[in-house]
Amino acid sequence: MNIGTRKIVVDEAIAQLRLYAETNGAVLQYYDGLPGMTTVGGSDPNRITFEDLGRIMVIGADLRVLDIPWLLEVEAEKELAAIPVDARLEDAAPGTELFEAAMALDDKFTGHRGFGHAKKSKLLHLKRPYLYPVTDSFIRMTYGSASAGAEFLKAVREDLVNPANVRDFKLLQVRLIAEPATSAARLLGEVPTLRLLDILASLLGEAK
After folding, report:
1. What is the dihedral of CA 130, 205, 33, 59, to 10 degrees?
2. What is the distance between the alpha carbons of residues 148 and 140, in angstroms, rounded to a whole number?
3. C-alpha dihedral over 152, 156, 157, 162, to 10 degrees?
4. For the chain, which residues make up each domain, given as ranges?
5. What pTM does this model have?
6. How far is 129 from 155, CA to CA, in rounded Å?
7. According to DSSP H, which parts of 42-162 are helical?
8. How wide is the angle at C-alpha 146 spanned by C-alphas 58 and 194, nearest 5°?
9. What is the pLDDT of residues 36-49, one digit of tens each?
């Protein structure tokens, strides 16, 4: 499969996801809400809560003291309500209403000093996990110049809808679901394809 500027075969992807799951149990439980994808969008999908801030800290958002009141006071209820919790990036082609709504919500959390792309993406993915990819320094290495904003969203979407990738991600999910009950990687069979993609993108960037 092709992810950004990198390539990985399904067998290697499985091995990498096993390792990720074994070493990131707290992230899978408290951030991703596994097993069961519990509280998709948070307990209140259309506003930012203390629960959301705690969950993104588990995945390393590293919030500063001044970030917290700002995030709780951002007036983004209208923009959040405009996007269903199960809205999918695959359906958000550039120029569509969904893509524009996604960028409008992104803009609401842009411009606060010290609250950059990585923190923002972890929050937005939590609120709309099928629409917003997580990004970090390693993912930015994988996606090169298209590593933020609308260009990043477009680039990730292209990888999601690439027919060869669609086939390989389906195979990947079947194999994850078939993992032994004792395997932490089995939990990853429940997450959106988008989440599998960003985990692999991060691991590929880290390995460079």
Report:
1. -120
2. 8
3. 140
4. 2-206
5. 0.95
6. 17
7. 50-58, 67-73, 77-81, 97-108, 117-127, 137-143, 149-161
8. 45
9. 988 899 999 999 99
